[in-house]
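Dear Dr. H.,

I hope your travels went smoothly. While you were away I took the liberty of generating a structure for the chain from your last submission, since the lab meeting agenda had it listed for discussion. I wanted you to have the full record in hand beforehand rather than looking at slides cold. The sequence, exactly as received, is reproduced here:
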Amino acid sequence: MSASAAPAVPGRVAWSRTTGARRLVLVAALPAILPVVALSQALVTGRLIAPGDAFNYYLPVHELAKASWRAGEIPGWNPFAFAGEPLLAIAQAGVFYPLNALFLVLPSFYANNVLVLLNIAIAATGAGLLARRLTGDDAGAVVAGLAFGSCGFFYGHLGHQTIEASAAWLPWAFLAYERLRERGGIGNVLLTSGALALAALAGQLQMFAMTVLALVTYAVVNELLVAPARARRFRKVVLVVSAVAGAEMLLPTPTLVIAAVLLLDLLLVVALVSLVVQRVLDRSFPSIRATPRSLRLLGLASIVGCGLAAVQLVPTAFGLGQSLRGSFSYAAATSFSLSATHLPLLLFPYLFGNQFPTAPFTAPYHGHWNLEELAGYPGLACVVLVAAGGARIRRDRRALALAAAAGLMLLVSLGRSTGLGFLIWLVPPFGHFRAWARYVVVVDLAVAILAAYGVAELRAAGGGVRRAACRRAAVTAAVLVGTGIVVPLLPPVARHVPNGFAAVLAVAIPLVAALAAVATCFLFGRNMRIATAICILLVPLDGFVSFDGFFGWRHSPSFTAARAAYSPSTPAPWGSVPDRPGGIDRYLFVGGSVRGVFPFLPQLTDLKGMRSASGYDPLASTRYLEAVGGMQPTGAIARPGQFLRRRSPLLDLLRISLVLVPTHQAPARTPPWLERTGVADGLVRYEYRPRVHDAFLVDRAVVASDREIGAALDGRRAFDPTAVALVERPAPAESRGRVGHVRWSAKHVDARVVAAGRSILVLSQAWAPGWSARVDSRRAPVIRVDGILSGVEIPAGAHRIRFEYRTPGLEAGFGISIGTLIALALSATVLLARRRTRVG
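The corresponding predicted structure, in token form, is as follows:
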């Protein structure tokens, strides 16, 4: 009897299973420990790992959501910023993301730090398990997990918590799909859909859409490569697309050239679509069963994932149409994207300087946009290991499919640099997102996984194959060294490179890591254990020394400083908002840039209970922003003259009692309607006395166009908001009255009114879909008044009015999510019953 046919020994099988389980735990645990080690200095010294937007925006938003949950309400409305705005619909708070429950059970600062560690740990562990499934090599899997967990993307985006939380599920989606593709089954459908749903619920729908696109690309290419003939055709298509993209990046960018490039891209797409249609017609419209089983299962899993996340997706879809994202221009959508001149940042991340100057990388950043958004260093040590595994990668269509998905996302991340960017902009929902450089996280994942192939090749191959792998690694390192010498000298790149030793280090340190990786490859032939251990140490060390260890988290505030900044008892550096008779009061920032006044602008002042007509949110209402000085989603004002040269009625309607103006933009003469009271923190304080209360009655309504309303609110047209209400459609009003006590809460406003006749009650609250009103016990629609405010028609007499906000689409989304869960449970029950019947 041969050895392969020998009967299994029970004890040996049990030992093998135990050993396999231990190795699996090791593969999962080692990468998960990485963020604790990398960020140990911040953890030990009591720092809040919340640089930039995390401190200014995300943590305050989580605090608002936490307050609503603890009050027994679903966090739906933020009453503080933008004179009131949706909270759940903007998705950034991740209201239904399970891990955000940490904020309910832990002190907020500890919850924040634990969540940061968990995001990186989830990503690293997922990458390690995915690499283990694809390569079968435990050491390679550990290297892949450490590589993805230490890539520049995660440490560059530490200030964007929802981005990291969503991207962390990217490798898990690939891992679950691999199980689904190989085994099928309702359990694997649930795993795949669960990973996609968590990516959506985490709060960054851009990362969710990216995950779906990358996964679909991976699945389709995987099927294309099954047949040799189709694989050859696909390789030709890849070569053509790569050549066209390369030519587009190198060409100058006058209008005629751009038009020609777009035409060429369009012709290529038409040609590909024509080929597909021709094949469909030749096959006489094959049934859906002719579609590969793996693609059908992926489609099912994607639908189920969207169904599970519908409780967030549906409200966000409703809110998207009210925001700037509902009609993003091509230029706006492709802002914060990579370009041909900035591709070297993927190899040498500090080549253009450091956005957060930290020794030894102390030179300020000289590149486009900001380094935070362009961060995506995969590690040159990993790039060398990828080259070492080139032969094994070419033999595995799964690895090639992953490389294809990464290549597509790299092209998309180049934005306007290629014609593909224009085509992507036309495809919903990608045209609603900006900062396409974020898609390089797929490249980082692919490099990490393919590096595991290199480790597996070096560990398993014989002498000749290993020597070939080492030669590929050496050649790649030589190319990287040449790139590091030549590219910084090219004029389009050189103008962004700062002078000094920091730029030399920015190139030298990653190259040293690459050369160390080559030496380690050769060491595999002499001592495999030591070489493996060096790989496991070198990969995260490369990420930390080349980028991770010297970026934004080093400048995060201490717990003490953060506690003081967030505390309602500690005033902002520019003081408090004056309390004027007539109800609530707000402040308004009137400046062209908010860079110098962070973090004491929304949402941070929200936690102090300070209401504002300003705000900071990517999904803010377009109508509101345009009416209030052409405000940007960051809170900057494009038309300061609306408040400083003209007396806009919005100062009264929004109950502005404090106007803040940067010192360099303050008018030489104080406007007569404002009172200058001092300068603090680079801002001039102007106090104002609103002429209307926070709720008032109007006895006359006039239908006005958007243009007429804009002129009235801008102060270019005479308009008395106490005498007339500007509405979109006829509304009866014939007499005034008086408004009694008004009580404000997070999602309700209660008022007592005595009207002499039919009139309109105007509330100093931004209008948004989802607001309804009750006049006594009768429901009444909330109408838009004066362009941006909320109002309700009331009859004569004494009434109790309640304005109430319910997130549009929440009930429908909740129903879809519950229905999806029930359908999954029923399907699992039926399948289990069938299986038991077959066994019986």
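Two observations you may find useful: The chain has three domains: 89-554, 586-687, 695-807. Residues 75 and 291 are 42 Å apart (CA to CA).

With kind regards,
E. W.
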